Automatic annotation (TrEMBL):
It comes from Agromyces sp. G08B096. InterPro entries: ATPase_NBD, ROK, WH-like_DNA-bd_sf, WH_DNA-bd_sf. It comes from the Bacteria. This is ROK family transcriptional regulator. Belongs to the ROK (NagC/XylR) family. The lineage of its organism: Bacteria, Bacillati, Actinomycetota, Actinomycetes, Micrococcales. Pfam families: ROK.
Length: 385
């Protein structure tokens, strides 16, 4: 980005153009008059802003609006084909993907089966990018960024993965570099629960929380930590990997054979509480949870043990219960967990069920991409002045 000295006419034009661009992103297509009204600028100034943004191909005419007397007014919208991205969630047996653009428009989500053998970062991601673009009718050449959510800790500085049980074929070091080389695009790798926490902050139940912890409960466990709107990843990306944490001695009363929190609250444990035979997949029996009062009570007991160290260390304003089990337990599970937490020790704490639907990882990756795509496009505004 070219540097512009503050206070100069060039700086003011860039500031106005950036305001206009953001208004078009927020409101959709606008006429010159509408843009002038929303921005507080005169119609001639609004016309100049539109001309400059058109010149660098950030916006284009998209239609006409009837104004009654006189000719129809031209409406302008952001060009969403300049730079797109693909949000990806890498699961144990499949890869979900969706195209993302600057307008945050809805595009179809695709699910690509993971290879049964010989998996690599490239095989997981390249096919998903192409499938998402085909489903959205988007030119794959417009894709400039990819965000991949993985069930692992990721150290961005060292390009290093850890806790990679569900990522067969992904090397511990160098996965991002390999993907960028294969794709020829910028790739961001992020922990899946961190992305789910970003989704909770941007559009879930934690939009106004000063801080919160998202406890992901599914086949495994994970925690996303949001402190003042910033996800805390830790020095090496491993913050929140609580599944390996040893169970408190007092928890042996309800789970005498549990060694770690995954044993206490992971998929097999919850399936057992729901009366499933050993080896039954959690997904097969989880729909029973909401209607099983005894199982809800038992799961709440275990969640209370799982969050105790998080409360002691972080003292968050909110605990959000997410993941398949958190979603299945819903509001009732959140209420039961809240009842089990010492109100005197944590007087401001609230417990909520996740509010981001059944694809929170993709939703978080999508939000991250929207922000990055818009930043990249705004970098062209200085050229327009």
């Amino acid at each position: 980005m070219n540097r512009i000295d503050p206070g100069t006419p060039t700086w003011l034009r860039a500031h106005n153009d950036r305001t206009a661009f953001r208004l078009l992103l927020e409101h959709g297509p606008l006429t010159r008059a509408q843009l002038g009204e929303l921005s507080g600028m005169s119609k001639p100034t609004a016309a100049q802003m539109i001309a400059r943004l058109e010149r660098v191909e950030l916006i284009h005419a998209v239609g006409e609006v009837s104004g009654g007397r006189g000719p129809n007014a031209v409406s302008y919208g952001v060009r969403t084909d300049r730079v797109t991205g693909v949000a990806i969630s890498v699961l144990a047996g499949a890869i979900e993907a969706v195209v993302v653009d600057a307008a945050d428009a809805d595009h179809p989500v695709v699910e690509v089966p993971a290879a049964t053998a010989g998996r690599t970062p490239e095989s997981d991601v390249l096919g998903a990018v192409e499938a998402a673009c085909r489903a959205a009718g988007v030119d794959v050449d417009s894709v400039g960024l990819v965000v991949a959510g993985v069930q692992a800790a990721f150290d961005d500085e060292g390009d290093e993965l850890s806790f990679t049980d569900t990522l067969p074929g992904w090397p511990q070091v160098g996965s991002r570099r390999r993907l960028e080389r294969a794709l020829g695009r910028t790739v961001l790798i992020e922990n899946d629960v961190n992305l789910a926490a970003m989704a909770e902050r941007s559009g879930g139940v934690a939009t106004t929380a000063s801080s919160f912890v998202l406890l992901w409960i599914g086949d495994g466990l994970g925690v996303g930590i949001d402190l003042g709107g910033v996800v805390h990843r830790g020095a090496a990306g491993g913050a929140g990997e609580v599944g390996y944490l040893e169970v408190a001695r007092s928890a042996t009363a309800i789970a005498p054979t549990a060694n770690d929190l995954t044993d206490l609250l992971g998929g097999p444990a919850v399936a057992h509480l729901l009366g499933a035979e050993e080896g039954t997949a959690l997904a097969e029996v989880l729909p029973r949870l909401a209607g099983d009062a005894a199982a809800l009570e038992a799961v709440a007991d275990r969640v209370a043990y799982a969050v105790a160290p998080l409360l002691a260390v972080l003292d968050p304003a909110m605990i959000v219960l997410g993941g398949p089990t958190g979603r299945a337990g819903g509001t009732r599970l959140a209420e039961l967990v809240g009842d089990r937490i010492d109100a005197a020790a944590h007087p401001k704490l609230v417990v909520r069920a996740s509010g981001t639907g059944d694809q929170p990882v993709l939703l978080g990756a999508r939000q991250l991409l929207v922000d990055r795509i818009r930043d990249r496009l705004e970098a062209d505004i200085t050229v327009a002045v």
